[in-house]
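Memo to structure team: turn this sequence into structure tokens by end of day. - J.P.
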Amino acid sequence: MAGKVKWVTDIEKSVLINNFEKRGWIQVTENEDWNFYWMSVQTIRNVFSVETGYRLSDDQIVNHFPNHYELTRKDLMVKNIKRYRKELEKEGSPLAEKDENGKYLYLDFVPVTYMLPADYNLFVEEFRKSPSSTWIMKPCGKAQGKGIFLINKLSQIKKWSRDSKTSSFVTQSTKEAYVISLYVNNPLLIGGRKFDLRLYKLGFCRFCTVKYTPSTSELDNMFVHLTNVAIQKHGEDYNHIHGGKWTVSNLRLYLESTRGKEVTGKLFDEIHWIIVQSLKAVAPVMNNDKHCFECYGYDIIIDDKLKPWLIEVNASPSLTSSTANDRILKYNLINDTLNIAVPNGEIPDCKWNKSPPKEVLGNYEILYDEELAQGDGADLRSRQGQSLGPKGGRSRDSGRTVLTTWK
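Reply from structure team:
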């Protein structure tokens, strides 16, 4: 179909708009005919809500799946991963193998997590097994570190419950749902500071501004524990030039020089594998609408034994640039994403083959291809091999699943 792509966005970020303009696309309003809408998660709810009765045409695509929250809401992600493990166990899959203590050998990549208030009694039972442990509480529906705090005593939860005017944890209340997870209290430190990884395709490490200590006296100091830029930028030691960030390639070089190439390669293979498994966990429940694509931001913490842990997945990773390098990275991320989602910059057609050819991948790489895996007889052939997984997009075409990550 001839003509220019007409675009709309309700996220006014230069890395988006510059990419649209570079392609010669035409900006319109949401009330006009549009082909491409980069929207917030709030807007996607309205577009796909039953009340609006809105139907997308074959020449329209949007940047979220209708129920992306099955992966990107903290409680639902954990629920789906737990269900996935049980299903693999029932099938007798070697992936669901456990050690003598009943711990998963391969699927133990999410910290022990409970939903509050629903799982309060289960949490208490677990807490009492190791009363010296630290737990982190997060509201299910918030981002940027809002509402997060650490606890190491049951009395702190009871106080929080009272402060939140919740009468009891035993019965479901109207209070906001939280997840409570075992805190990874032995994070890998660089320069004495905690960091995590935010991954889409390339990605970066986000560092805390204050040196890490597991001391209980510092549990309330979020500059020690939470890597979110929204929090760290308010710290006295925040550096506005590099923004407390490293590229993932710098991290890889650092680890190769300090820990060796082999263990570093294994770590990144395991990270990729975790991401594939998380996507496979939500595949049965995700509404795979043909008008949709999605760019997820994965948050991973590495512990001092170089074991990666999946912390959460973001459906709308920040496109705000805190540094010049940040802006370049995010501009390139959007550029590569658009090259895959809107091939040749032409007006979309939902009947397209959704498996991108290698030449348009840019910095994306395919980590898992179901057709190839089955063709190889690679029944999840090695945790650190062919069955690697994505940070970027997911697309299906006649039963084929292609998972991509930014390298």
